[in-house]
Design goal:
The chain is built from 18 helices and 13 strands. With 481 residues, it is α/β, with parallel strands linked by helices. The protein folds into 3 domains: 168 residues, Rossmann fold (3-Layer(aba) Sandwich); 87 residues, N-(1-d-carboxylethyl)-l-norvaline Dehydrogenase, domain 2 (Orthogonal Bundle); 97 residues, Rossmann fold. A 6-stranded mixed beta sheet has the order 8-9-10-11-12-13, sandwiched between helices. The chain has a 5-stranded mixed beta sheet with strand order 3-4-5-6-7, with helices on both faces. Helix 6 links the parallel strand 6 and strand 7. Helix 10 crosses helix 11. The longest helix has 20 residues.
């Protein structure tokens, strides 16, 4: 990370001093710089001459004293508060009195770091995202002690470097990680309690949630130890149980299964090919009784392979004994399954986004295993990606995304960050296709309140109660912007 930040600064035409703990670590840092800029040369993004100019701007050393004339020092040591405070105490000794000292922490308290120095007014957070040369977002964190000129100066520098600064207050996780890791931790709990499988949760959030990767793929990429550290930092401050690390995550970290970097995490990275997806058969005969968003069919219910019942619709007479009955409903479907007189043949069906390929199958305690298998195959024949879960509020997609959106709304309502900053944090920092405030306006505060209320009534988890700003805007019939 330090090498990436040094590269960003040098690409911006600035002279840089890079400090490492030992000659061996310095050699690794030099290797990172040469490899990163070398890739840019191979892709035609840099000329060999430009690469040499960038590298020549970076002076590498193991002597803290070489930082004495620097205007800005950015620390990027591992996420340990004790270590960061030691580093800042040393920087305080060797740097000019007017130098600004910045920490690249992703989740720790900037204030607790600042008070380890004699210049807390000149301490800021400057959180680059990995890989720093590529990612556009930089969170600039101010404390109650930081001089406004120090924050403004860092934000201005970030802009000149071609990045997008988002200035926020000093709260654990800041914006991006506070929102992202609540969602990731909830996905882990969903897996741990048997609500759905790893693969179905990942598939649901890509095919139905529109995300570039599922939560378990993403956590393996980040590193499960990093995930655990961020969650512990946020939970220590907030005491929000959504950020209390899942026992499963802690178990994997304890076992040394940290994701891609160790060859195994939620997935195994041993070079073996994934199993081929089952091929879909011919399009089935589908009968739709009532209206069901995203599913069409005009077959006679007596001849249909799949009979879909809309909200309030009853099962017609004469449905084939081997037909699958899918009940389209926002909430639990077990009671409606019993009312059909054929509960073993019934699954719940939800299409969270009609223009996306996902179909969620909720399997009740009465659904026969063969029915669930056949329902998935029939929906595949309709071009849908079918995932399965237990019969719970929100199924998979809504049960994961609306609490995340609720967190963003609460952040907005508290004045912690504005809508543009929150959306930029998630699009530029986490690669989301749209920001949470934009998503809330697209989906509607009223729907958000309905889903969150159902989740809260089922779990009685305080963090799932709709944020007051959502309730207010739902009642007013308007979006958050």
């Amino acid at each position: 990370m330090g090498a990436g930040i040094a590269e960003v600064l040098a690409r911006g035409g600035l002279p840089v001093v890079g400090i490492e703990i030992s000659p061996e670590a310095l050699d690794r840092g030099r290797g990172h710089l040469e490899k990163s800029t070398g890739r840019a040369v191979k892709r035609g993004k840099l000329t060999p001459e430009a690469q040499r100019e960038i590298l020549d701007r970076i002076a590498l050393s193991t002597d803290f004293g070489d930082l004495g004339d620097c205007d800005l020092v950015i620390e990027a040591v591992p996420e340990r508060l004790d270590l960061k405070r030691q580093v800042f105490a040393r920087l305080d000794e060797v740097c000019r009195a007017d130098a600004v000292l910045a920490t690249n922490t992703s989740s720790l308290s900037v204030t607790e770091i600042a008070v380890a120095t004699n210049r807390p007014t000149k301490i800021v957070g400057v959180h680059f995202f990995n890989p720093a040369p590529v990612m556009r977002l930089v969170e600039v964190i101010t404390t109650v002690l930081t001089e406004p000129t120090a924050v403004a100066g860092v934000a201005d520098l970030v802009t000149k470097l071609g990045k997008t600064p988002v200035t926020v207050g000093d709260r654990a996780g800041f914006v991006a990680n506070r929102l992202l890791f609540g969602y990731l931790n909830q996905a882990t709990a969903m897996l741990e309690n048997g609500h759905a499988t790893r693969d179905d949760i990942d598939a649901a959030m890509t095919a139905g949630g529109g995300l570039p990767m599922g939560p378990f793929t993403l956590m393996d990429l980040i590193g499960l130890d990093t995930c655990l550290g961020v969650l512990e930092a946020v939970y220590a401050e907030s005491r929000d149980r959504r950020h209390a690390p899942s026992p499963l995550l802690r178990e994997l970290v304890t076992a040394g299964l940290l994701g891609r970097k160790t060859g195994r995490g939620f997935y195994a990275y041993d070079g073996s090919a994934d199993e081929a997806a089952a091929e879909s058969g011919p399009a089935p005969a589908v009968a739709v009784v009532g209206e069901v968003a995203g599913i069409t069919g005009d077959a006679d219910p007596a001849a249909a392979d799949l009979v879909v019942l809309g909200a309030g619709a009853e099962l017609p007479d004469g449905v084939k004994p081997d037909a699958v009955i899918a009940v389209a409903a926002e909430g639990p479907v077990t009671a409606r399954a019993v009312a059909t007189g054929r509960p073993g043949d019934v699954v719940g069906l939800r299409v969270p986004e009609p223009d996306r390929p996902l179909a969620e199958l909720t399997v009740t305690a009465l659904t026969l295993p063969a029915t669930a298998d056949r329902a998935a195959a029939l929906l595949a024949g309709l071009g849908r990606t079918a995932v399965r879960c237990r019969d719970r509020a929100g199924a998979i997609v809504d049960a994961l995304r609306f609490p995340y959106l609720n967190d963003a709304a609460a952040m907005l309502g508290a004045g912690y960050a504005d809508a543009d900053a929150i959306d930029a944090a998630m699009t530029l920092g986490c690669g989301y296709p749209t920001g949470p405030v934009a998503d809330l306006d697209r989906l509607g505060p009223r729907r958000a309140v309905e889903v969150l209320t159902a989740l809260y009534e089922e779990s009685r988890e305080p963090a799932l109660a709709p944020a007051p700003v959502l309730v207010e805007h739902a009642a007013a019939g308007r979006g958050l912007r």
